[in-house]
Amino acid sequence: MPLIALQGVRGGVGTTSLCAGVGWALAALGERVLLIDGSPISQLGVHFNLPAQQENGWMKALCEGGDWQHSALRYPHGPDLLPHGVLSHQHSLTITRQNEAVAAPLLHALPDLQARYQWIIFDLPADSLPWHETLYPQLDGILCVTQPDANCHLRLSQHCFPARTRFVINQFNANSRLQQDLHQLWMASLTQLIPLLIHRDEALAEALMMKQPVGEYRPHALASEEIITLANWLLLNLKGVSS
Question: Reading across the β-sheet that carries 3-8, which strands appear in turn?
């Protein structure tokens, strides 16, 4: 069963909102989905009505020598969730010193989790952490979230991306000539660009304020329909893929 990650080419491109939306959309299509927050910012759970300062989480449990499995949560009619947990300064130092070893219990459990879920999706920050290097080889795909602007364009040309990376355009503004031009350029130059667009939609911002995935908050919004289309694309192109 697919094990994938969403990771922004930079911060601020809407990766976490898109991850929550895709997880909700796949669950709405009848799939068993587990979302894992892989970012110390720990914001994925806010899209599923968790507190902004979510104290408990899988990474925090591991830093304290606890059981990460007790952090798992079930969202009604949606995906299951493993929040990251807000870390103290001491916890952050523990991660830095132990590198990928601190996340090893979760990473070693991924094959067992794949037997229980049809999709496991990580929400990763744009700046990779040491334990991500252990995760990348296990992934069946990475969706690199980008936005058609000069900053993202530079990063796409400068970075070396992990194998199995596909690119998805988020927050597209159809009224921007620059974004239209960059979209055309990327279609011609990015061989792994997913042929779908997620348009800029106020419903996404409103959904976060309401602490819901956009597909639950406004199922008929443009972004919700486009994320459902992306979920169907993932089902067609990644379902049944294994590492």
Answer: 73-74, 80-82, 33-37, 119-124, 3-8, 141-146, 165-172, 193-199
